[in-house]
Every structure is written in structure tokens, then in C-alpha cells.
Amino acid sequence: MLLTTAAAAAALMLLQQAPAEGVDWDAEFGVETKERDPVTGELPVDPYEQSNANAGATPYDSARLVRDFGGRDGIVRIAARTVELSEADPRIAAIFAAHDMVRLKRTLGEQFCYLIGAGCDYSGRDMRTAHAEMGVTKADMNALVENLQAAMCEADVPFAAQNRLLAKLAPMSGQVVER
Amino acid sequence: MTLTHAFLAFTQTAAITAALPPGEPPRIAYAPVLEAFDPAPAPVVATPTITARATAPLGTINALGEDEGVSTGTGRPIRADKLLLTNGISTVEGSSGGGIARWATIAGRQMPGGIGVSAHGSAVELPDFGWRSYGAAIGFGDRLELSFARADFDTRDAGAALGIGQGYTFNMNTFGAKVRVAGDLIYGATWLPQIAVGVEHKQSGDGGLVRALGAADDAGTDITVSATKLFLARSVLANATLRYTEANQIGLLGFGSAAGAGYKLQFEGSLGYQLSRRAVVGAEYRSKPDNLGLGEDDWLDLFAAYALTDSLTLTAAYADLGSIATFSDQRGGFLSAQVAF
User: Fold this and answer.
1) Mean pLDDT within B151-166
2) What is the CATH number of domain A61-173?
3) Mean pLDDT, chain B, as a whole number?
4) Staple B141 to which of A107, B6, B43, B112, CB 3.0 to 4.6 Å?
5) Would you kindly state where each structural domain of chain A is located, as residue ranges?
6) Are A164 and A157 in contact (CB under 8 A)?
7) What was the pLDDT predicted at B71?
8) Residue from A112, A163, A178 whose CB has the most chain B CBs within 10 Å, to mutate
9) Mutate to test the interface with A, among B78, B81, B191 (most CBs of A within 10 A)
């Protein structure tokens, strides 16, 4: 009896040898790998209907505001800088690490540009879809606001103009904050 | 870039341009956005496998989470994440507010799920009186605030003139509680302010004297409802508070009157203009009852607050407290320091 048990155990141990090094477990388990678009460098997203309504607010109509932000180029730089600061911000870096920063820089630039009224179209997803399952908190929102403020200060955007952009973004918190 | 991609990009641009009236630049941000920050295509080879992050070795995890490796969380015991100045300025009654008016804001720099603390010291220098207030508050998330403040009101020479003794000092303890019931100061719908209800229980340390002055009681409880909102589009903060109270000079001179005057509804309003993340200027108004018939006046102030650091806020104000204990024209300076975490 004892011998049979020992033999069975030995057989089991032999069967459970360690797998070979260098196994592509993603392939073994059928995990799909997304490839970046060779032109844009962006990861593909599920298809959705593009609309400026996805930007979440109506745009301003003020040439002065656009000038305060340094025109389209200035706005795009501010959006990209905000993302960079956030990627380096230990409070919220983890949220950004798991997502496509190339796409975010583009869509955030478009969203800011559209909301400020600099004549862009927003091609990204709506706020609820774009932030789904990220578990964003109000504290995370505050960290992002601070990074955006820092980026706007670096670009010498007057404080009142900074607040006008924030005024468009703040009411979207309901679609972004999940916990 | 392959030939096919180049061809596709070309036809796309051509299609967009063709759809526009002549002379109008293409109104799509796609191309300029990309060119502006990243002319070269993103480094496709930079991510060897998508499992790289998951298989990366764990870095040394410390309490501050400041390591290079993959972290298992922020690991920070206290997150003081509230935006600057949005915890308000302690009132002379210890609550988060604007100096003399109570706001719907919650004291401390915590966000939901956190606990924050705040402490203040304030001095009001008037022609005939010197007023000191110091206290502390604790905030639970964005929900509950508990506060305590001690007030010392020095009558100086007026004490002798009033026959209560040179330098007689009125004392009062205020225990406050405030609960946010709806809305948010910054986020959410613009039309929905942060709304909070609260109480302030006040205990005068001069029971015999305030009764002699005509007050009915030496303790009383105020009930408040506050609504506060930061209107970012205008950089304006607005607050309105209704206070149901029977306090005389906010309670320093007791509560109600022996003649029967009791609870009345009073109004506190604040308007602030944000100059920068750290600086705000504004004005406040607070109506007060005159239960004792001593000509008690409404209060006004003009204030400037500055967040010297993330934790330290200094406030200076010009305050017009009107007539106090028959001494009229009590206008002077208000200085306050607040530390919050």
C-alpha cells in the first residue's frame, strides 16, 4: 500500500516538472496582443461613433482665450505636457502606465483645442467610455488638475484663462470618477 | 512608412481638403496635433512584449512608494490631495469658512476616504477690544467636519468703562459639526453647489455676567445650512449660509434675552476672486440679531488669503464689526494663520 502511494506520488512529481524557459504564455493562453499602428503609433480601440459631442462640453467662442493659450500649437503642447507630468506623478502614474499615451496626447490635445474654441474637431471617445474601469477618484482628478495647472503656468497662460478651461472640464467629473 | 500608408494618408488629406470651401484651412486637428509633439512615429520596438511590466522585478517598496520598480500601490498613509485653498479659512468659530462666515467646505486637506486635520489662530484688533480665536478641526473625507474653537475677547479699557473691570475677558468655547449633504465645491454640475448642514454649540464662560447684561442663557446652539461653489469660468467663489441662532455677538454676550428674544434666521455671504492657485481676495457679510438692544451690528470684512505653502495659509482682513457692547465703530484688522494636513 505504502509502496503504491509512493510510486503514485513519484509519478505525479515527474508529470509536474517545471515548464521550459521562454514559453510565450500570452500565446499559450490566447492573450491577444495589440499592435501599434505603424503610422500613428497608437494602439487600436474598439470602433465608436466619432462626434464633437464626445468632448463633453460646448466650446468657447473667444479669440482672446485661444490667444491666451498660445493658439492650437500652444494648446497641443499643454495637453502633451500635462500627460508627461502625470506619467511622472507617483500619485497617478499607475493609471496612465496601463494606457496608450500616444493616443491620449492626441485626443486630449484635440479635446482642449475643441473646448477652447481653437477650431479643432474631437475624434476621441466620450468621457465615460474613455475612463471606464480606470477606478479614477476625485483625488486623482485633483492631481491631474494640478498637473494641467503646472503645464498651463509653464506656457504662461493667465490664471483666469486657465480656470475657464477647468470650468469646462470640472462638470465632467461625474462621467470620470468611479469611486 | 509603406507606400500603401503614404497613399492612404494622401487620399485622406485630399478628401478632407476637397470637402472644404476654397481658401479655408482644413479644420481637423489630426495632422497638426501629431506633428506638433511627435514628428516621428512612436517607437514601436520600445515594448518588446506586452508582459514586460507584469514580469518586471518588484522594486524596494517603502512607505512613501518612491521606488523605481513596480509598486503595489501608492503606499502613502496620508494623502493631502485637496486643491489649494479649497479647505477654506477657519472662521472665528473654528469651522471651515471664510474667516467670519461658515462655508459648506470640509476642513483639512484630505479627499474621500481620508482624514485631515486643521488648526488656526486668529487675532482681531479693534479700537476698543482685542479678540483672539484659536482652535482645531478634523475632517473625515468630503463628508464630516468636527471643530473646536476657543475665543478670548479682551475688553481692555472698555471693561473699566462698562464697570466689569479693566481688561475683563469674555471667553467662549464653540463645538461644531458639519455634514456635506450634496454637491461639490469644484466638480459636478455648475448649478449644484456643495451643500452642508451643521450645528455650532457654544458655551460662554461668563454665565453670571451675560445674564446680568440681559441674556437668557450662557449656552446655545446654532443651526446652519451652507451652499458654496467655485465658479471656475469666472474664478469666483460664492457662499451663502443661513444660520438659525439666538447668539448675542456670536455668543460672547450669551444667548437670547431675558425679555424673550430668541432664535432668528441670519444670513452669511461670501464672495471671493481667485488671483492664482495660492491667492484669493474677497468680501464677507454676516447679519446678526440685536437681542440685547445694545445696537449690535451686522459684520463686514474684506479679506486676502495666501497659501504660503500647501499646508500654511495666511489671511489678512479689514473687518467692520460695528457696535459691540455699546462701543460703536469697531473697525480693525484681522490676521489669521491656518495649518492643515
Assistant:
1) 95
2) 1.10.490.10
3) 86
4) B112
5) 61-173
6) no
7) 44
8) A163
9) B81
